[in-house]
Amino acid sequence: MAGEFGAVLRRLREKAGLTQDELERRSGVSVSTIRGLETGKRRNPRMTTVQQLADALALRSGDREELLRAAVPGRRGGGTGEAEADAPEAGTAQAGTAQADSAQAGATAVASPAVPPPAAAVRAAPAEAAEQLAKAVAARWQREEEQRRIQDPYPLPVRWKAASESLTDHWANIRRLPPGVPSGPLDLSGRLEGVAETYRSIPSGRLVVLGRSGSGKTVLTLRFVLDHLRSRTPAEPVPVIFSIGAWDPTAVTLRDWLTEQLTRDHPGTAAPGPGKVSLASALVDSGRVLPVLDGFDEMADGLRRPALEALNATTLPLVLTSRPAEYAAAVAETDVLTSAAPIELTDLTLDDLDHYLPRTTRKADRSDPAAGAWQPVLKKLREPSPDGSPAPLATVLSTPLMVALARTVYSDTPEHDPAELLDTERFPGVRELEEHLLDNFLPTVYRRSRPGARGWDPERVQRWLGHLARHLTELRTPDLAWWRLGHGLRGSTRTLVTALVTALVIGLVDGALSTAFGGSLAGGVLDGTVVGLLAGLLFGLVHWFTYTVTGKDVQPSAVRLRIRGRPRSTKWRAGSRLVIGTLGGAFFGSAYGFMVGLLRALSRHAGPASALETGLIDAILFGLIFGGAAGLSFCLLGLLETPLDIVSAVSPGSVLRADRRTVLIQLVFWAPVFGTAVGVGAGVVVDLLQGHLGQLVMDPMSSLMLGTISGLGGALGYTLTLTAWGQWCLLARVWLPLTGRLPWAVAAFLDDAYQRGVLRQAGAVYQFRHARLQSRLARRRR
What does 735-772 look like in DSSP terms, one character per residue? Predict the structure, then answer.
């Protein structure tokens, strides 16, 4: 096989018109190594050496794959492990090749059919995860492309050209050339269907896509991901779209943020990987993920400079999209994106509109297929204006976004005539036309009925979506996450609502059970009121200190409960769960016991000293009972948890359903286990402390009642205050609809908005299909 590699290398080198000495200067690999590889004296080259040679030869995907296949015996486009050299390679790589090495190493085939060593088995986990991730990403964005009707009737012709030289790094850096080698610009012009090949023609693997609002940047990134995955080899990283507008580079590093986002959208990557890190971290750190960073311009003004500095500090290959002005401003403050080749999207032409818009309407006259509502409009746009300037409508329809809106409002709605867009008195300029199309988009799509879908009042829809748009604007993120819908409220309001609802629920449960056990309605109401208020206060404080003060989110669970069939790679965290549960339970029990003991003593008209003594005794007693019970319950939960599969989260709805299922199973498990532990533990603790703290009384009926109430109340309190699904039910399903900000059927509303093309799915979150639409709705809401 080494002879085959040498023959392929020699042929590709001669095809590029390079001598061995010239290839040495470009690649950094010594001429003796190149000569040894071509003659077959050196066998099994390191993959880093192969990548250096491929980059120096500027190979396209087909030639690169042929070279990799020849370098690895038995390679058929898959496998795991690394090819090892049987002798040290001479020569050193230039600094820039570290990026290509990290992006490609570890996903090629093993050079020998022998049983792999343990280290190779460890490397196999990220490689297998990368293949699963590639399948999940491809399936997700294929559905999104179909939902966006990009191919109906055919994609708009998104084109680009090389961006300004002032925004471009040195071509020697982009082409990865060693010092002294002459370099020139690459031909980066192209069309939508060739975006993957354009990217692969850039040796540095760094591309910046610039375009004004609505010019098709998002469509281009979607097509890039699908085309790249369709022609991807196992040695190449998996392109994953990240909304960079949600990144705060001053608070978290790029790699850590990519890991967090990957874990959010693919909960299975939270599973342990090699080196005691998560699979998500292993995938990012090993270069198996190609970040497609969409929306640099959506970052806050003060964050773009540190973001660009952070991107320049990393060697990761990437694709970055932005509006030109925002990117140029960041470059002026710092520097261009190192080794990145920028392209700029160009406007649609009248010929493009002639070819597209008439085909989106029904045939009014079957004898003349070209006839239609758009034909006279497009003909009018070709007529020269008195001052020679283009018509406002021609300027508006030069971007794919506005063409898509115009199609929705007029082509898909036969009763609307696009000729009204030519009315210069009604629409004197570009701004008025764009606002008209944006404002009529929602009424148009919600006026049409969908089979099997409920009807929504367009006016209410406008208000609900306006609230969501303003919510995202205030959070400075494009990601509409169902578990963060309550963040539209102030932190104090959110905590107060959580505490009050928790108090009400636990109070009702306690009151009903106390009445059933004691037979006294008055006693049950009194006990339920006291316990509900105490539980609401304590759980509210826990929620406040855990999330509101720290500014953290209540994240969806990335695990499920499974007694049998857990993967061997799962690492139990029962020890940490035991400590956290014990301390939390002890704190809750001590506070609960002290307040209950104090109130009970005061109800008997005991003096302050006696009431304080009773409160302290009950604090110790209940602190031990609840601490031991909570520690045991949390420990058992940790033992039974196993990570979700990588492909589990295919949509926001699937994440919601998975989290609901996990929480309900935890609730069903937690209530009897915690209740039994409290009931049994109460008797044990009373027996152990009998005489040490005075005369203690705990009859079996009291233990049963305490265990039952504690099990249900504790499980409900934990669910409502400390789980994402509980907060979703409490805030998004009750409070926000109650105050008119959202509909009662929130999940159905969001899914319907996605089906109508108002929202799009980006992993575990929704996003507004068009940033301009979100901005317009947010302004109107204010």
Answer: IHHHTTSS-S-HHHHHHHHHHTTSEEEETTEEEES-HH
Residue pair 517/746 in contact by the 8 Å Cβ criterion: no
Dig out the tokens for 51 from the structure. 């990548």
DSSP 284-336: HHTT-EEEEEE-GGGS-HHHHHHHHHHHHT----EEEEE-HHHHHHHHHHS-P
- Cα 45–Cα 48–Cα 54 angle in degrees, nearest 5: 90
Buried b (16+ CB within 10 A) or exposed e, 81-114: bbbebeeebeeebbebbebbbbbbbbbbbbbeee
* pLDDT digit string, tens, across residues 227-236: 999 999 888 9
Distance in angstroms (rounded) separating the CA atoms of residues 455 and 443: 12
Q: Residues near 252 by Cβ (< 8 Å), separated by ≥ 6?
A: 260
pLDDT in tens, 380-389: 888 887 777 7
Packing angle of the helix pair 608-640, 652-689 (nearest 10 deg): 130
Report the alpha-carbon distance of residue 142 to residue 136 in Å, rounded: 10
Asked if 173 contacts 96 with a C-beta cutoff of 8 angstroms, the reply is yes
Q: Report residue 95's pLDDT band, with 50, 70 and 90 as the boundaries.
A: very low
Q: CA–CA separation, 621 vs 489, rounded Å?
A: 38
Question: What is the C-alpha separation between 290 and 281, in angstroms, rounded?
Answer: 13
pLDDT at 60: 76
SS3 assignment, position 533: helix
Instruction: Please list the residues that pair with 294 across neighbouring strands.
Output: 243
Contacts of 600 (CB under 8 A, 6+ apart): 614, 618
d(C-alpha 235, C-alpha 240), whole Å: 16
Residue 682 is predicted with a pLDDT of: 78
β-pair partners for 206: 318
Stated as kind and residue range, the H or E segment containing 534 is helix 521-543
Which residues contact residue 684 at a Cβ distance below 8 angstroms, ignoring those fewer than 6 apart?
none
Phi-psi map region of 339: left, alpha, beta (phi>0 left; psi -120 to 50 alpha): left
| Amino acid, res. 596 | V
pTM above 0.85, yes or no: no
What integer pLDDT is reported at residue 3 of this predicted model? 62
Q: Which residues have C-beta within 8 Å of that of residue 601, sequence separation ≥ 6? A: 610, 611, 614, 615
Percent of the chain with pLDDT over 90: 22
Q: Which two tokens stand for residue 686?
A: 């009373």
Pair 642, 540: CB distance under 8 Å: no
How do residues 645-660 score in pLDDT, each as one tens digit? 655 656 888 888 888 8
DSSP state of 57: T
Element housing 604 (H / E): none
In this prediction, residues 128-142 reach a mean pLDDT of 87
Query: In the numeric block, which tokens belong to residue 132?
Result: 């699963």
Residues 6+ apart with CB under 8 A from 664: none
Q: Is the dihedral of CA 420, 421, 425, 431 positive or negative?
A: positive
